[in-house]
């Protein structure tokens, strides 16, 4: 998981680092190692933005008007061993200003907007509308690239209120953390996602393909190495 701090810097780390950022503490009597935390639901004290490149799929092969129907988030396991509960999304405040960003950049104008966000057992869904060419050639061009399948990645920025540390049985499939209650802050289209699972797929492709890790160097990995001086 990627953390955007209040200073605007991006940081990443293991689950212990993330839980420290979120202000989740172990019981004083808990003498277990730092990477073992009490199972169950935890309220979050820290106020930071997390950026998750969750599985991101086109939910239809055709446009609806000028909007593109997208699945922004699902309960699927990401490469960091984390899941986002679809029923835990709170997007009321986001819908007051439902902009689509480019690569999580707050310093450039939004390239579009989202309408009619909905939740079901499969995930978080909405219609993406890219800006018109008449006033935003760049935003329009990103939309054209998405429609052509050149850009197929995206991710959500959100603030976490509750997390769940899974028990041993739940963790058998690799799940290390479940976000149970989270507020949507922003949604971005990206050239390269924070992890290779965040690729847009057509409905037909989503039915016939299984998600698998792609072996290429990620932009994010290089970015964090530079930030941390590694």
Describe the protein in words.
Residues 28-35, 195-199 and 201-230 have low confidence and may be disordered. The protein has one domain. It is built from four helices and 13 strands. The protein is an alpha+beta fold. Strands 1, 2, 3, 4, 5, 6, 7, 8, 9, 10, 11, 12 and 13 form a 13-stranded mixed beta sheet that branches. It is 15% helix and 33% strand. Strand 10 (112-120) and strand 11 (123-130) form a beta hairpin.
> What is the residue-averaged pLDDT?
75
Strand-residue fraction? 25-35%
Measured as a percent range, the helix fraction is: 10-25%
Please report the total strand number as a whole number.
13
What profile does the largest beta sheet have?
A: 13 strands, mixed
Topology order in helix (H) and strand (E) letters: EEHEEEEEEEEEHEEHH
Q: Radius of gyration, Cα only, in angstroms?
A: 18 Å
**How many helix segments?**
4
- Describe the global form: elongated
Distance between the termini: 18 Å
Low-confidence stretches at least 5 residues in length (pLDDT < 50)? 28-35, 195-199, 201-230
Structural class: alpha+beta
- The domain tally reads 1
């Amino acid at each position: 998981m990627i953390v955007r701090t209040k200073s605007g810097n991006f940081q990443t780390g293991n689950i212990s680092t993330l839980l420290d950022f979120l202000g989740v503490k172990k019981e004083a009597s808990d003498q277990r190692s730092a990477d073992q935390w009490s199972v169950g639901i935890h309220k979050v004290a820290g106020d930071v933005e997390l950026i998750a490149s969750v599985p991101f799929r086109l939910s239809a092969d055709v446009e609806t008007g000028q909007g593109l129907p997208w699945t922004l988030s699902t309960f699927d396991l990401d490469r960091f061993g984390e899941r986002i509960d679809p029923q835990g999304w709170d997007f009321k405040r986001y819908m007051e200003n439902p902009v689509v960003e480019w690569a999580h950049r707050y310093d450039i104008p939004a390239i579009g907007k989202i309408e009619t966000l909905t939740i079901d057992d499969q995930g978080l869904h909405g219609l993406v509308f890219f800006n018109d060419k008449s006033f935003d050639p760049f935003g329009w061009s990103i939309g054209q690239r998405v429609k052509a399948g050149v850009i197929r990645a995206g991710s959500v920025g959100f603030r976490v209120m509750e997390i769940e540390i899974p028990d041993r049985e739940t963790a058998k499939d690799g799940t290390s953390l479940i976000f149970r209650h989270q507020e949507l802050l922003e949604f971005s289209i990206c050239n390269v996602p924070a992890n290779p699972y965040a690729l847009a797929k057509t409905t037909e492709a989503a039915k016939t393909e299984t998600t698998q890790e792609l072996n290429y160097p990620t932009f994010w990995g290089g970015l964090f190495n530079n930030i941390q001086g590694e």
